[in-house]
Amino acid sequence: MKKLWISVLVLVSCVMVAEYKLPSEKIVKIFDTPRNPFWNYESFSKIALEKQYRPFQTLKQLADGKVKLAGQEISIKLNAEMDAYPDTSLTIHNLETGQAIKPQFVEDIRIRETIISPDETKLAVVLQTDSGLKLKIVECATGRVTHIPNIILNNAFSHSCVQWCANSSELLLKTIPTNRGQMPQKKLPDSPIIEESSGKFSKSRTYQNLLKNKHDEKLFDYFFTSQLVRWNLQDMSASKIGKPAIIYDYAIAPDNEYILVEMLHQPYSYELPYYRFPKKTVIWNKEGKFVHLVYDRPLQDEVPIGGTYTGPRYFEWQPLKPASLVYKVALDEGDPKIEVPYLDKIMRIEAPFTSSPQLLFKTKQRFSHITWSEAEDELIAYEYDRDKLWMYGWLIDLKTNNRKLFHDLSVNDEYNDPGRMVTKTTTGGKRVFVKKDGFVFTINNTGATPEGNFPFFAKINLENGKKEVLYRCAGEKYEVIYGVLDETMQKLLIRSESVMEPRNYSVLNITTKESIELTNYANPYPEITNLKKELVQYKREDGINLFGTLYLPANYNGGKRLPLIIHAYPEEFTNTATANQVSSSPYLFPNFWGSSIKYLVLEGYAVLANASIPIVGDPDTVNNNFIEQTLSSVKAAIDYLDQRNIIDRNRVGIYGHSYGAFMVANVLAHSDLCKAGIARSGAYNRTLTPFGFQSERRTLWEARDFYIKVSPFMFADQIKEPLLLVHGEEDPNSGTYPLQSRRMYQALKGNGGTVRLVLLPLEGHSYRARSSNLHVLAEMVEWFDRFL
Q1: Is 387 an active-site residue?
Q2: Is the pTM of this model over 0.70?
Q3: Active-site residue (options: 407, 657, 727, 765)
Q4: Dist. CA 389–CA 426, nearest whole Å
Q5: Does residue 658 carry a catalytic annotation?
Q6: Who contacts 696 (Cβ-Cβ below 8 Å, separation ≥6)?
Q7: E strand or H helix at 317, and its extent?
Q8: For residue range 385-436, what is the model confidence (pLDDT) as tens digits?
């Protein structure tokens, strides 16, 4: 058995291996404090679920056996990706009776998923165990737990592997075949690996954890092959449905007579993740007998940048018809550069699936999604204009072919966003939006305004599109609306918090203003609620309004200028109107997560968290001004806080993660605004991401000078400020593979820079283990203490 590596690799001028560090006791105490529970709720349900989660893993858990296949990291023990933060407790709340039931689990639990039955009497609970994913059924009224024997679930694709049938007494499960045998063992290769291409334009992002050889293909077949099983709770019997296959996803028709099944098949690719593999979409009857081939999609290895798949895609059952399958087909070969009058058509084929598909409608822009109405053939179809970053929503009556523009808004316009539609579950288990007296209802849990975020509940007139806000969060608090309790549309489940009060839950009658308290959670860490917090707004030199959340030490009373840390993540906009918008709240309870930079406020720093850095321009070329607009944004933040006599502008550090790390390195390479930086899990050489990154649409060969200009690696000789690089050694994120940080370290070291590289064993793009997060916090405090 391998001995667990319990040290972290740190590179400075030489290689050093050291034990994991700890930050100060006050940081460790807050980090280890259990978080309060959270709730799950769907509108119009009588059941709400109260859960507690584990906020980190152990290194031993991260070191458990795993295989990396076709873009997925599969735990051998679980036959699924490890859930980093499983729920560890569960309470079922009946909102009609006020009853709270604790299920009678006899063992420690790690809950991966919970799925409530259509009649809300039972709860399916998927558990992570040492012998795989197990299923238990909980009676909501009593908490009695029934174990489903001889079933190991297969969740390798991360889609739900448990679906209730409409009768609430049967479930359709995706399981590991009982006769699959032992895991294939690696053998000596019997041939070289050969790939060849001629005339294809396969512009793929830099995906990771891909298949590499024939042995990986056998492992992929082994771990991803599933058997559908119908489980009857009345007689506790199992029936196999169809034959084992690599089932990507499945869905039961509303009438429960048919099953949509999507199956991957050979030939696989060594350059693309599983979701681009060939895929056969079929319809089975409820017994698993083949009924209809919808589409057999070939390998999608020539999807253009910003494009989509060719052929039928994105299948769904129409909620209020017995068995009508709706899907989309690109009319431009999936290529946004091909000009056609309509980009997509939406098709429907109905049981018994012997007739030709019916054309429902076409969209001039790229089809996005459908929100179905509780009226059978009514829907809102959304389409996305990639040139304007704009979303249109059309209210369509399929019976009359009448259509009306319902939604017409920039995807970045948070001030005018109506929010998400209030939906309810049909008897067939699908969600539809609610209509009442000619109105639909929406919940916007951002509720952005120039003064900050104030979530709201509203109704919209379907005839004229006018919105009326029925309830809005107000005062010095922040309220999230979890859902509507009943058809009167008067009662809301609310989560409320403020700077000093932790998140708690209540039922609010918006007419009588009566509030029924459901929880009274105590403040888990009063040490950080005394910190000073302020939503600050300031302007960039081009007139664009910027904002961020300023945190100051509890004992700060002015007079002394503090060292400042700026935390940011750039975002792209097409116009100044949306770039100007504020989207934050000064009234959030201070929850610190993982190795958050906000912990450094406890060490005496001012921290400007989520400082806005809008990059404004045409979507095709917006990043041409990335460096200039980033530097201007950082300078504006420093100037503003300096003018308020809060910070010492000669002691400013900058911090970012992922694309934020890319920002940090560019700020240090092209300015002297900051005296030190910390860049985590970033990419620094854009020639290693040649087919685009983030929102960039051009390839390296189409914009060679630009790729070099925005690569801080190319300007390593100009970085004179100390830079701490942190990276998970197993980062699977497209573009930010660990080589990026290794090469950036070598470039800085080779040019005489002050640099430190911390590689975290067993960690990915974000960091999951307690030891890793605490070590990173210790490194960040020490780095800024040294140089600020």
Answers
A1: no
A2: yes
A3: 765
A4: 33
A5: yes
A6: 623
A7: strand 312-317
A8: 999 999 999 999 999 999 999 999 999 999 999 999 999 999 888 999 999 9
